[in-house]
Sequence to fold (208 residues):
Amino acid sequence: MGDAQDMLDRSSDGVDMNGQVREVSRTTVFTGPIFSIDDIVLELPTTDGSTARIRRQLIRHAPCVVMLVHDVPGDRYLIEREYRVGSDRFAYGLPAGLMDPGENPEQAALRELAEETGTVPDTADAARFDHAGAYYSSEGMTDELAHIMVIHLDRWHTEERHFDADEHVESAWVPWRQLQDTPVTESNAIIAIQHEMLRRTCLGGTIG
Fold:
């Protein structure tokens, strides 16, 4: 980055961007089944050796998986629709869910896929993972880290779905063109779809 990196490292108000932040206090002000909220007081280091005190609220959230699922023989993709309270609508999206303790992203993705859609690879080598990366949903307010991937299924079958009591999710397989035309607005899902778009483009332009 050169000069740009130097500008970002240089402080305009005395805060040392390369120093160590110290946590002064943390109070959990809300605990729910999905996330909790901490009220935190922090001290930022300054270039003159003092500190600048700030206060932030952090939504603590388990890491999650988001997956675009590709039926390779049929060249179709799995999309879902369910009510999302953040946008207050029945939104289109991709299979996703929270990682359980001890799970790696691929294990969590296959478990969530089976629970939400009943889709299960026939064998361990029938699912190929294309990892798009791990990204924070919103660094300014939550520690949720989303592991985003495309799962290419060469052979699979359907089993019974297992929803939580308050889950109401519909899923369907659609061709690539229809997936592109579906109004998906969730940012992690968009990353997965664009990642797959690049792969398909490299294979020879628009396919399907």
